[in-house]
Structures are given as C-alpha cells and as structure tokens.
C-alpha cells in the first residue's frame, strides 16, 4: 500500500495503530475539541472529557507520529502545511526539530471566544502547538480575532492585528476564505449520469417542492432545529402538506455524536404526524446511500437548500448548491452562525437564526414563493462570491502569505554577533554628522519602578556624564529614548544634559536639544490625539488593581502603565495570579477600547503599557531623522509629523546612526538605512531573536559609549 501511494499518488502515509487512532479521533477530536470549537461545552457528566481526558495522550501520540514521518521526509525548501484541529500540536513538534522550516497551519472549522476555549484543561498545550507555525489561517475575521484574544488572555502574549508577538518570534495570523473547485464541479455536473438522475427525481417528485440539506447528525449542525422548524412550517401553512418534501442527507459522524444530535426521534415524530400512504414529509439518507452524481442531481432539482448550523466554519456545501443552480437560481436558506454568512456575497441568502423555529419556518415559505427576478438577483451575488473565492484562490493566497511570513521570520532565528567595537570605531571617526540613539531604562539605568512611584529618582551620574561628553562633540546629535513620563526623572535629566535630546513616553513627547539658537523645548506629539480612552481605561485598571495585591497604575500624559507585579520574578502562586489578572485586564481593554480608539498594548514581564497605535519610539525617531523634524525646525509639530513624511524622508546629511536598546520595531526601521549600526541589549537574547546587527549585555553599554566618547 505504501509503495502504491508513493508511486501512483506521490503521497506518504502515516501509520497509526487502530486503538490510538480511535481514542484520538473519536474521543478527543470529536467529543472534546469539535464541541468546544463550535461553542458547545458538554453538560456533566460529559465535562469529564474536558478535565481528565486520557484520550489527549493518544492525541499527542498521533501528532508525534505525523511529526516523525514529516521530519524523516523533510528537505530544505519544503513547505509544511498543517490542516485542522486534529493536528494542533504538530506545528510546535515540527518547529522543535526543523527550526527554519516554512510551516503553515489552517483551521478549517470555527474558533470560539476565549470564554469557551479556556474551559479546556489542555488549552495552553493546544495554543503553543499551533503557535509553532509561521502563519495561522482562519476562515473568517471573527475566528482570527477570537484566536488572537484567546492567546492574549491565556498566554499573556502581545496580540496585534497582524498576529502574535511571542518571546522569541512573531507569528502571522490571517483570514483565508475557503472555496470549492468550480471548474472540477462544472465538469462533474456535465456527466450524463447526473442528467439521468435529474430526470428520475423530477418524475418521482412531480408536483412537489423539494428542500434539500446535507449535514452531520451531531447537535452542532442543527439538523434537529431544522426538522422542528419544518414541522412548524407544515402546521402554519397546511396547504403545503403533501406537497413538500425535506430530503436530509446525513454525513457520517461518531455514533455517540449522532445519539446526542437526537435526530432519529424527531424524524420519526414528524413522519408519523404527516405521512400518508403515498407521502412522507422527511426523507432521510446517509451519504453511503447515494453517489456523488445523485447528490449533484438532488442539488439541481432542489427548490431551496437549507443550512441550520448552530456554529460552523465555511459551509462549502452551499457553494456546491449555488453552482448546481446555474439554470434555476433557487434560493439558499443559511444560518447566520456559519462562516460563509460573514462574507458580503453570501448576504444575498435568506438568513435565519436556527434557534428561532418560527422565523425559520417563514424563511422556507419565503424561499418557495420568491419571484424569479429576485431569485436571479440573489443567485448572481452568491455565484460571484463562489467563483472568486475558489479553492485555487484559497491555496494560492495562503501559500504566498506563508512563504512571505517565513522569510520575514528567518531573521529572528539568525545568530547575532556580539558587538565588536573595533569594527565600528573607524566609521564613527570618519563620519561628519552622527545620530546616537540610546535607550534609558534597562540599558543605561537599571529601572526600579517602586522608586519612581515614591517620587525619588537618583540620576545615574556616570551615565549622564558619558552622554554629556558625547553631546559636546559638534558632530554628534545624541538622543535618549525613554518610556518614562516627562515630569520627574526626565525633566531632571533634561536639566543635567541640555545638549541631549529626549524622547519621553515611548514617543509621545520629544524634548529638542539646546543649540546656539536657544534652549530645547518639549514638543507634544499627541496634542491632536483623542485621549478620551484614558478615563475608561483607568476605571478598568482600577478594578483589577483592587484585586491584585501590590499592583499599581502609572498614569502618564498620553499612555498608561499597569505594574501588576513588583516582587521577585519567580513562579510563585502570587505572581501567577498577578499574570492571570494582567491577561484578563489586557483582554478587557482590547475588547472594549482597543479597536474603537486605535490602542495597542505592549506586555512586559511584570507590567503592560497602553498607548495610541500610531505612536512609538520608531515614529519619534522618524520625526528626528526628517529634515524638517524637531532636531532641525523651530516650528515644532510640522509637516514631518504625518506618517507618510516620516516614512519617506530622512536627513541626508546624517552619515552614521548608532542605536542601542531593546525596541525591535526601531531596530528594523533603522536597518533600512545604509549607514546604521543597531545594537540590541535584550536580556534573553539566547531565546529571543533580534533584528539588530549586534548584541550587547546591558552592563557593557557604559564602557562601549565611553569608547565612542573618547574617540576623536
């Protein structure tokens, strides 16, 4: 069999023992993951699956078998595309063995809100598993947002619109609507056997209206809701009794899920109520009872197709129905809880809430009595979506994005050399105009937030002495970059180092350097920003502060810091509680304020920062580099403040840029300049990748700056 698969299908099998497969697939995948991902938390005693599922061990074993087979067959340049919830652990297992491989993961089903996913006892294993990929894809923007928020809440990682920032790498998260192979389906529809079956069905159901559905029989797919709504329809519109048939095709699922679905009894009930000697209102078929040609014929003769899922990813069977209706244009009745409904093209269906059987019954009546003109108009919208969002478009867009993400992440895993000052000094010596950018906290000054709150700040004299010495050189333009507020520590530093420019609050304020024209002034970079978000944000943080011992809020002019832990960085139960509270707080702020006000949240080890989206040290440095920026123009906030201007230009006279710090966004930006030297002082460089050209321990920074200051 293995030889045949390899020779005839270019495929490699993964052999899994029956017992392992049954426990993994039938129990963990279908009894635990499938309901959870579709918003169904089983009632007791079923909840034992969530907390003590021994089948998870088999799930791990199956994922490991896939990993072993793939690693053995992998060659450089291969793309590994992992599909669906059965293999959520696989990306991480592969990443451990193949650190530079291109790995993508696509979730074909729904992804629930964090409130549901957090009920899983193995939630962290599953999340870390998929985060081994370079790109994680979902069917809809809602599912992707739920995933980002779940990771933010459970793992306390930074969730950004583009993806997840982990300690050591960035993982892209994208939306890729899946489709069908329209060309292949059109060819299959042209099969003479389909036409023959269309003829047979029209004869068999002459004078009848046909409603068709195809679903799994578990409770998620809502077949029970569909049949109940059909019963309400027959009661409400008795003129259709004996003239309409619901043909329900059942997809295979596990026996236990089928029992939970409770479909058999409701079918028996409705048929016993309305059947006659020559009429049966519900015809129930299993997929093994009919061929694909018969199914296509059924879609062709249907007067409506009905999907009543309680939660679903993309309902691709609706795409097949739309294409089979190329001649008749009959309407589609679609649950608003499917992923398909979230796309504008599918808004031309008749939408229903499957929990509301009365409006669903009305939707059946509307479908049967819709005018041909309206049917055609709705069908054209549906058809346009199906042909543009095809299977080919899905595969192409996912693979291109996956390759791009992988290439972007390659830099993260490259080893960065320790700084060799002797290689940079000659360039420094022979340059005419230099820009020196140095992080303050954690680089020049080992921060102690508790001292700042008490209002005591002891300026690091040695550090300021070196900065002043660098600033005295007329060729140097020295800037200190800080996340601290203007009042207090930075005001004091500005007085002690008048020739050094200061960036405060991560770019919210810039203090220009003192020149012959006069003293430096503080420029507010967020003067025109809407800061009304601060009041509700403080209210949320106050709530969490009351519940987190030792935590406190630092309110700044245009940003807010919540320090949830001020003790030793250990794994004590108190710190774990504080981290959980921080994850909750971040999630709450992001949900209620993040998108509305355009905020971003930057988590740290023991604190997190909330600030406007388009403000950062990187934008501040862009303003400094701009020819009309605060370093050159007395006008203060001028043309350089527009993002386009900042991105586009930099002072052509600057022929040497030296940046020392931890801000990766800034390092990436400065790397684009030919004359830059970027040095990262990240403390966990062994784990965390950096885009800087060099790395340096924080305790060695002063010695390096002294070397530059002494160079003439």
TrEMBL record:
Gene3D superfamilies: Glycogen Phosphorylase B (3.40.50.2000). Pfam families: Glyco_transf_20, Trehalose_PPase. This is Glycosyltransferase family 20 protein. It comes from Somion occarium.
């Amino acid at each position: 069999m293995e030889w045949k698969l390899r020779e005839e299908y270019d495929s490699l099998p993964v052999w899994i023992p029956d017992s392992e497969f049954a426990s993994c697939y039938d129990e963990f995948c279908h009894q635990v993951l499938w309901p959870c991902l579709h918003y169904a938390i089983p009632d007791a005693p079923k909840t034992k699956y969530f907390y003590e599922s021994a089948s998870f061990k088999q799930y791990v074993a199956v994922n490991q078998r896939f990993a072993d087979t793939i690693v053995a067959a992998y060659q450089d340049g291969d793309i590994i595309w992992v599909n669906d919830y059965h293999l959520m652990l696989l990306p991480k297992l592969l990443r451990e063995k193949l650190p530079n491989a291109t790995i993508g993961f696509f979730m074909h089903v729904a992804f629930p809100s964090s409130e549901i996913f957090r009920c899983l006892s193995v939630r962290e294993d599953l999340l870390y598993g998929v985060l081994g990929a370079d790109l994680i894809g979902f069917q809809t923007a809602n599912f992707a947002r739920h995933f980002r928020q779940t990771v933010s809440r459970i793992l306390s990682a930074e969730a950004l619109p583009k993806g997840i920032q982990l300690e050591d790498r960035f993982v892209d998260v994208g939306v890729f609507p899946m489709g069908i192979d329209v060309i292949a389906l059109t060819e299959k529809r042209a099969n003479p056997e389909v036409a023959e079956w269309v003829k047979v069905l029209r004869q068999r159901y002459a004078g009848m209206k046909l409603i068709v559905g195809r679903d799994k029989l578990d409770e998620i797919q809502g077949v029970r809701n569909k049949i109940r709504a059909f019963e309400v329809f027959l009661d409400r519109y008795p003129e259709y009794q004996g003239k309409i048939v619901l043909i329900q095709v059942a997809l295979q699922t596990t026996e236990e899920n089928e029992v939970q679905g409770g479909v058999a009894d409701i079918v028996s009930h409705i048929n016993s109520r309305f059947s006659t000697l020559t009429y049966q209102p519900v015809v129930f078929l299993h997929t093994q009872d009919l061929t694909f040609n018969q199914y296509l014929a059924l879609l062709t003769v249907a007067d409506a197709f009905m999907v009543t899922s309680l939660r679903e990813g993309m309902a691709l069977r609706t795409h097949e129905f739309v294409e089979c209706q190329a001649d008749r244009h009959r309407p589609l009745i679609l649950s608003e809880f499917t992923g398909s409904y979230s796309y504008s093209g599918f808004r031309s269906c008749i939408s229903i809430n499957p929990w509301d059987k009365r409006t669903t019954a009305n939707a059946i009546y509307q479908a049967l009595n819709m005018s041909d003109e309206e049917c055609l108009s709705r069908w054209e919208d549906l058809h346009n979506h199906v042909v543009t969002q095809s299977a080919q478009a899905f595969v192409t867009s996912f693979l291109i994005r996956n390759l791009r993400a992988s290439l972007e992440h390659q830099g993260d895993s490259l080893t960065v050399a320790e700084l060799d000052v002797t290689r940079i000094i000659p360039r420094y010596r022979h340059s005419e105009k230099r820009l020196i950018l140095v992080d303050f906290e954690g680089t020049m000054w080992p921060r102690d937030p508790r001292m700042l709150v008490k209002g005591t700040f002891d300026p690091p004299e040695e550090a300021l002495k070196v900065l002043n010495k660098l600033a005295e050189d007329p060729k140097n333009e020295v800037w200190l970059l800080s996340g601290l507020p203007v009042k207090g520590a930075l005001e004091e530093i500005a007085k002690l180092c008048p020739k050094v420019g200061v960036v405060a609050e991560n770019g919210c304020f810039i203090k220009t350097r003192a020149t012959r024209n006069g003293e430096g002034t503080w420029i507010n970079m967020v003067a025109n920003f809407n800061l009304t978000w601060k009041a509700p944000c403080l209210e949320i943080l106050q709530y969490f502060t009351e519940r987190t011992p030792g935590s406190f809020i630092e309110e700044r002019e245009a940003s807010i810091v919540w320090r949830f832990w001020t003790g030793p960085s250990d794994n004590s139960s108190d710190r774990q509680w504080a981290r959980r509270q921080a994850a909750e707080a971040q999630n709450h702020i992001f949900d209620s304020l993040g998108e509305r006000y355009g905020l971003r949240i930057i988590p740290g080890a023991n604190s997190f920062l909330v600030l406007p989206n388009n403000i950062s040290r990187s934008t501040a440095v862009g303003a400094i580099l701009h020819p009309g920026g605060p370093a050159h123009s007395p006008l203060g906030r001028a043309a350089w403040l527009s993002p386009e201007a900042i991105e586009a230009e930099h002072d052509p006279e600057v022929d040497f840029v030296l940046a020392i710090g931890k801000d990766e966004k800034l390092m990436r930006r400065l790397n684009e300049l030919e004359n830059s030297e970027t040095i990262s002082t990240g403390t966990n460089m062994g784990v965390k990748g950096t885009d800087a050209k060099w790395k340096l321990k924080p305790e060695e920074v002063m010695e390096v700056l002294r070397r530059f200051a002494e160079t003439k």
